[in-house]
Predict the structure.
Amino acid sequence: MLMTSPYSISGQETGRETTDLAGLVDILRRGLPQILVTTALALLLAVLYLVFAAPSYTSNAVLYINPSPNRVVNETAPAPNSTGADLAIVDSQVAIISSDAMLRRVVDTLSLDKDSEFSGAGPLTKLKSLLSNSAAPDAKALAAEKLAKRIKILRAQKTYIVEVEATASSPAKAAQITDTLISLYLADQATARAEDERRANELITGRLGELRDEVRQAEDRVDDFKRRNGITVSEGGIVGEQQLGKLNGELVAARATAAEAKGRLDAVRSAAASSGAALDAMPEAVRSATIQRLREQHAQVARRVASLSSQLKSRHPVLIEARSQLGEIRAQIDAELRRIANALAAEYRIASSRELELQRLIETSKAEVSRTSTAQIKLRELEQDVATSRDVLGTFLQRAKETREQEQISVPYARVVSPATAPSKPSWPINWLVLGLGAFGGLGLGIVRVLAGAQLDTTVRLTPRTFQLGNHALFPIPALGEARLSRIGSVSSRLPALRGTTQETEDLGRALVAVSEPESAAETAYRQSILHLLASFEQDRHDSYPSAIMLCAADRESEAASVALALAQSGALRGERVLLVDACSTDATLSATLAPDLTEGWATLLAKPEALAAHTVRDSKSSLAFLPLASADLRLLKRGERRQLAANLAAAALDYDLVIIDGGALASDESASALLPLVDKVAIVARSGKTPQHRLDDLLRALAPVRDKISGVVLTGTGVGRA
């Protein structure tokens, strides 16, 4: 339940109310009728919407968007290397499909600006134009704007699948819009790809001439540099370097030949210096055919001389001739050996000359190669420039061929996976969804309304479980239902029929019937609460003196008079002598009902106690005594007169067991304040859900002088029985 501002009773302060589960349930229980009515109204609105709402149909188609480049011609084109780049391409294509330009093309193709569903400016459009102080949009722009609200582009996360949805008033129109949008998108993509390839081809073609000139100029610079620096290339190499290599090889061979010739010559000279026989053993002599032939002849002649020497005398002419032939042969051998030695000397001289010449040529070639090597550094740079220009030119030539072919074969990014079809049932309204939203919306709105009303409610709503007044109790009195007023006459002789009476009088009659002859569950609960309240007041009752209890109302709607009458009647039914006093001059409901004829003689009230007895009215059926003090305006009494009245009432009360005083709204009517000194207990009466909190605060401040006498709070109309 909800408590409001803090206040203090008997030194105990109560805080602002908190919301707990029990309080929330109680708020919802009290507001259940409002919740049900709100829910019923929401359901009714939902049903009316289903009856009168025009159905709409949604047709969808599924596209697969390929983020990879077109590889129909260029199969070596690189593919995107990251998922993020792929998804960015897909998102870009989704934005193209839903772009204003694409929607305007759909409007132009299907003439939607002439369709009543998409044409015409509604109230909201006119109001927007007035607020923005701008001219109304043309028909095609308005149709495209409305079409944009009917188009949905959905893409599943991390996939290349895109779903295109279009909503229209008929299935065929929805499918037609979807197909048209997809067809225009695919055609636009193919055209855009072809246009891109055409522009690329034009740029490449324009660049080819420049690249050819650059290659030609680079080649001319290389040739000119070679001519100026005497660089000749043959068989893939510089001629000077090749010649130097060959000369080095020939020099090595010449040196080897000279060394060999010198070695043979030195051997011959050494042999000639030692003895002539050594020459015969020389390799050149051994290899010479002439020497071998002469040696054979020499051997034959030598054998013949030896044979003749053994047969003839030394002076024999034949022997002398033979010896002469042997000498001639030997002379020929020596001459041949000398010729060989001279030939070796000549060969050595030639080899030495060859070696010297080659050394000279090599030195000259080295100087030339050194010069050309320095020039080759610049030459390589020029050749690299030529190679780079040729590579770029080759790439552009290849790309030009590809773009020319690609311009004729343009494949769009997307392809249709599932074409649009006419839906068989409307996409909106969905009966169960509308009814469910209506029911839950109405229920939620009703609950919010009840809870908001409870939060904004400043009246007192208290229960025993959520409210404590220090050591004082809270007494909930449940509300009474409709009672048959014809029963009231059988209960009290002072309330015969109550036909045509006021609401306050009827409340008194219902309270009297409930405590006297309860029939319904509400009347029984009311009677039990009154008996519990009476028992609580009599706990500290003195045996020799009557117990005086004053009921003070927080406001006029607290039903303090009904509670006072019910308490007095309950005490009387228990056989006690009960005096009921009406001390509320501004709202004398009890006096007007129980003693309407007593209007004179009030001047004697202050004379002596016996005067009060003369004005006391008794009920013959219940022996309840009633003193209508409120018939006199107690507010006009002076301080001394008030003390005298309280003394007289105290003396008259000695004849009773229980005195119950209806003090009324003491904060606004201080009539009963004169009787506060003689009462034993004070009970505050408030109406649950009716009494404002500030009225209760005002009453508590008015009762501050007698706060020790406050016994508790009687809360009427709580809807609960005894706690």
